[in-house]
Amino acid sequence: MAYLTVTDGVKQFAGFRALGGVSIAVERGEFFTLLGPSGCGKTTLLRAIAGFNDLTSGSIMLDGQDLRAIPPHRRDIGMVFQDYAVFPHLSVFDNVAFGLKPRKVPQDQIKTRVAEALSAVHLQALAERLPAAMSGGQQQRIGLARAMVINPRLLLMDEPLSNLDAKLRIELREEIRDIQKRVDIATIYVTHDQEEALAISDRICVMSAGHIEQIGTPQEIYGNPQTLFVANFVGTLNTLAEGEGRAKLLGQLGLDAPAAHWTVRPERLSLLEAGQAAPVGAVALDGNVSKFTYLGREAHVLVETPAGPVVVQISNPALGAAREPGDKVSVLFERGALMAFDADSKRLPLEG
């Protein structure tokens, strides 16, 4: 049996249903991420688990206990917030120790446990400093240490990195992942950042409009999306324009699934010089470059083709790889790169 389960969770506000019967199962020690756009219900679900907002209906079980029957302060859940939530008048040490005092932990144990928590987040040398003299990343580390020091049964993190700059976010997300694995606490992490979710999660739950689109490993979510929403939200996606050009391309590739949407990821396409023959099992569409975007480790080339505009991703572009608007090129499509979705945006198997 899973360590944490939410079954048929519904949250109804006045005139608005934030959660429409969601069910998840999280294993002991797992890093489980709720991913989706603003308003999809991910924070509502997290707050229901924490006890800040009760569900309208449904069950929440943690290690065999009914969490809905337990007051929030007795659930033994650690919470890390988006806005750091540190006490500005308390030192780093006292901020981290704050949750231990109501639990009547002996003073000598408080010193030991706070020292261990600060060491885990690399703040042991700053124990006496006030938060105002610290960076945003250091303040978020205080929040993480405070959540861990109570030895929680479950760790909840609500977009903890969203207020940090891009480089620091990457550094701190790696630290969070390493710490979580070291202490082996089941963690539920909320984010709208797809790359962040892919980088740190054991499994990802993609949410939209109060329901679950797909649950899977990062590789499954990105490489085998089961709905058009997941394919579009996680990563970049080309959708081929309906018409004669698309029909001819599909025919040449031997694809005849009854799909409403045909898509392909930019990294699954490649560029050939105009008129260059395609290898066996692939089709080359002639087109004209309309835009070239250089991003350092990769470049994106927007090409107008008979199947509509498509973006082609070039990895590690050489100095001479730049393309100018109007350049004639061919875009290489491989049969296995295409993904088909029906009119209800559900994934279809490739046929033909």
Major sheet details: 6 strands, mixed
| Total strand segments | 19
Helix-strand category: alpha+beta
Overall CATH class of the largest domain = Alpha Beta
Summary, kept brief:
The protein has helices at 42-50, 92-97, 107-120, 136-149, 166-183, 194-200, 218-223, 228-233, 244-253, and strands at 4-13, 16-26, 31-35, 57-62, 65-66, 77-80, 154-158, 187-191, 203-208, 211-216, 238-239, 261-264, 270-273, 282-294, 298-305, 308-315, 328-334, 339-341, 347-348.
What does this structure look like?
The structure is a single chain. 26% of the residues lie in helices and 32% in strands. The model has no long low-confidence stretch (mean pLDDT 94). The protein has a six-stranded mixed sheet, with helices on both faces. The chain folds into two domains: 4-233, P-loop containing nucleotide triphosphate hydrolases (Rossmann fold, 3-Layer(aba) Sandwich), CATH 3.40.50; 238-348, OB fold (Dihydrolipoamide Acetyltransferase, E2P) (Beta Barrel), CATH 2.40.50.140. The chain has 352 residues and is an alpha+beta fold. A hairpin with a 2-residue loop joins strand 9 and strand 10 (211-216). It has helices at residues 42-50, 92-97, 107-120, 136-149, 166-183, 194-200, 218-223, 228-233, 244-253; strands spanning 4-13, 16-26, 31-35, 57-62, 65-66, 77-80, 154-158, 187-191, 203-208, 211-216, 238-239, 261-264, 270-273, 282-294, 298-305, 308-315, 328-334, 339-341, 347-348. The chain has nine helices and 19 strands. The longest helix is centred in the middle third of the chain and has 18 residues, at 166-183.
